[in-house]
UniProtKB/TrEMBL annotation:
<feature type="region of interest" description="Disordered">
    <location>
        <begin position="39"/>
        <end position="58"/>
    </location>
</feature>
<dbReference type="Pfam" id="PF25858">
    <property type="entry name" value="DUF7958"/>
</dbReference>
<protein>
    <submittedName>
        <fullName>Uncharacterized protein</fullName>
    </submittedName>
</protein>
<feature type="region of interest" description="Disordered">
    <location>
        <begin position="207"/>
        <end position="226"/>
    </location>
</feature>
<dbReference type="InterPro" id="IPR058264">
    <property type="entry name" value="DUF7958"/>
</dbReference>
Amino acid sequence: MRASIEGEDEEGCGLEILDNDGIEHWIEIKYDRGDISYHEQDGYPDKPAKRTNEGNEHVEQARRFAKYHVYRERGYETIARRHLPEVVAAVAVTVASLSPEEFDEQFGTYYQQFRSTFDADVEPVIDPPGTDDDGTIVYLQDVYLDADLPDLLDDDQIDAIQAALDTETSLDELESQLGQDLIDIDSLLNPASLSVKTSGLGTIYQRAGSESITEPSGSLDRPTDARLQLPPKHDSTDEYMSPETFQFLIFHHLVCQVRDCYLRLGLEPPEAVRVLGIGTYRQTIRNQYLDMFPPVHSTTSPVDGYRLPGIGSHLEG
């Protein structure tokens, strides 16, 4: 993916995008909300219904990448924060740095809901939206940092985070280096002193031909920095019983979301986040149904260049 800004005024800009299929796109974006006011391309049918699934994804990648490029080059928040890899990476490190008491205070309801799916002695926080064995349930929870990270990051600081993502090769090393990068950005951004707030729970229930979403309850009146999107676990193993292991599971899930932030933009994920496991719900669907994506959501089969996390294949099925 390549992008260049070809013209702009106080309301927005026009970009030329070259997608991963070698097709040029001309896109105009408004700065205030990131709305796309114009999009022309010369390689796919104009009507989505006449494109292949892969063609539609290339078109959508061009639009997403254009918004991300404007954010990086001009600083306008033209893309949702929970789709910004550097923001989700900061959330991941902050969650990993929480004390057990802090983690339980913010994520205890999500842990309870997760455990209730395989432990009959644990009451669910919310009732599952459906009981169809052919359906898929994903439990949602919004996460908010107590720092306005996009406002605090400049190009050099984003590059420092990107460098850590490009060079680290283990989750422990990534957590350590990203934590130091945040400290270097601002003394207030020490992950050990950062805190997070969370919403209540929501759900996605998907079955053949239909999908229903219940947004998380109690969401804050501010942009979401990350959203947990894990399916339930239906069998009990000791490695999932402890809150400490669950905290690492959430860290790993958020790192997989960082990986998916790059995939949805048509970019190769950096080395540090080439891990197998469930990330975002939407990218998981793309991985399952589009051959252009490797099945990195699964931990049951190898993918060249990707590795398993250190706590087993906890997201099988």
